[in-house]
Amino acid sequence: MLDSITSTAGGWIDSLWDVINRVFIFDARYTLWLEGLGNTLIIAFFALIIGLVFGFFLAVIRVFHGASENPSWILRILNRITKIFVTIIRGTPVMVQLLIFHFIILVSVRNGVLVGIIAFGINSSAYASEIFRGGILSVDKGQTEAGRSLGLNYRQTMSRIILPQAIKNSLPALGNEFITVLKETSLAGVIAITDVTRAAQQIRGRTFDPTPLIFLAIIYLIMVLFLEFLIGRLERRLRRSDQR
Amino acid sequence: MISVKGLRKNFGSLEVLRGIDEEIRKGEKVVIVGPSGSGKSTFLRCLNLLETPNAGEIWFDGTEITCLKKGIDQHRRKMGMVFQLFNLCPHLTVEQNITLAPVMLKKASKEEARETAHRLLKRIGLLDKAEKYPATLSGGQKQRVAIVRALAMEPKVMLFDEPTSALDPEMVGEVLELIGDLAKEGMTLVMVTHEMGFAREVGNRVLFMDEGLIVEQAPPDEFFGNPRSARLQDFLAKVL
Q: Tell me, what's the ipTM?
């Protein structure tokens, strides 16, 4: 009786070890996992940076245009381009954009990871710009009036009074966008980048065993949890002024 | 100090100001009263061009500011404004709220601005709140900080847009007291308010606005004691 329990427990541990061995260790498969994970993180990280920086400028163009009573022709053109850009990016699937970047726009770029970074970064910037724009518009009009009535010009009021509050207001939605981008990079395989999803798929193909997909899901979950943790810390820092 | 000629303002098809002529002299305390929607806040906000007039001229210190495109910021520095909802910056501490504009506009060094802020906070008894955020203050405290924030720019005139309308009744007094002190020190002030007692005590001149026009104006004794127009009589009967 006791024997059978220990042997069952031993069997369970043995088979788990079997799976881990097959999925991660045999044939140095962890190198494939690590390569994939590295590419996923690199693409997600730089795409987020591009998305944040570029999206921020797009949002400022839109808001600046909206606030000008008589916008200059340059501003009007930039505003129009921004609107069309956001419409196109939001109106087409990210996978299609990725393929277009790979096969048409950046066809001469050999580095797949770079193409991924650019494609996901451009995609994210459209969403980030709308998030920032919403954040800026959510700041009470009285804040602008306070700044202007003290004699600050539009730019000074924007940079010292409106934007710090706008960024704080944008954080929850930005956190969402970060997580979305991280997960969307799982499409990078379609342009032959070995991201972590593609690594899992390749190991699944070699071993005829679908369990790598479960490990893949767990890996994404851990990355998202870590991202949530970072965003939470940042939000708490920025919410200091709300404490009573 | 401020003269207004033929001031008109519409929001879309709605005519809010329908031709206002007014002269505010140095040291005067002008109180503007009237029913809501009469254009009194819009008039005040036109004085520092927070609202752009559709027609008319505003002269401040011998300069026509209505035609200025770039230099308006220079003039706004000399016109302090206090809002109904305080409009303190929630992401800055009380002290940072006060020092932001003077430092940014190079009116004072960081150190000087800090000293000024502390002197002003001491005056209103809130020195211990210097490092606190506005969310920790009561309404009356916020409004008093907003007033000294405007004072830190050493304005020549202070514009008050219903400074006590958003306050709990027990906090109205402390704010009016501070404004009254400023008046005694000789500050030129223009104030839109529903506080008739304050208008009577502190004002040199009370303006009654209705439907975008200044219907009647007089020194407070005469204004409240002997109103001439039927509309003012009607208004005073309702509010007093």
A: 0.90
- Residues of A with Cβ-Cβ distance to B89 under 8 angstroms: 143, 146, 161, 165
Q: Angle at Cα B42 formed by Cα B37 and Cα B45, nearest 5°?
A: 155
C-alpha to C-alpha distances, B238 to B30, B37, B51, B231, B233, nearest whole angstrom: 22, 16, 30, 11, 9
- If one counts every other C-beta atom within 10 angstroms of the C-beta of residue A161, the result is 26
Q: Are B239 and B197 in contact (CB under 8 A)?
A: no
At residue B189, what are phi and psi to the nearest 5 degrees?
-140, 145
pLDDT over threshold 70, residue B158: yes
Percentage of chain B with pLDDT > 70? 100
Is the pLDDT assigned to residue A39 strictly greater than 70? yes
Closest Cα partner for A197 from A181, A214, A176?
A: A214
Asked if residue A135 has pLDDT above 90, the reply is yes
Length of chain B: 240
Q: Report pLDDT digits (tens) over A171-197.
A: 999 999 999 999 999 999 999 999 999
> Which of B60, B87, B107, B159 should we substitute to test contact with A (largest number of A Cβ atoms within 10 Å)?
B87
Contact call for B50 and A241, based on CB within 8 A: no
- Nearest residue in B to A237, CA atom: B91
For chain A positions 132-161, those within 8 Å of chain B (CB to CB) are 140, 142-143, 145-153, 156, 160-161
Q: Does the reported pTM lie above 0.90? A: no
Q: What is the mean pLDDT of residues A114-125?
A: 97
Q: Which residues contact B12 (CB under 8 A, 6 or more apart)?
A: none
Asked if residues A146 and B87 have their Cβ atoms less than 8 Å apart, the reply is yes
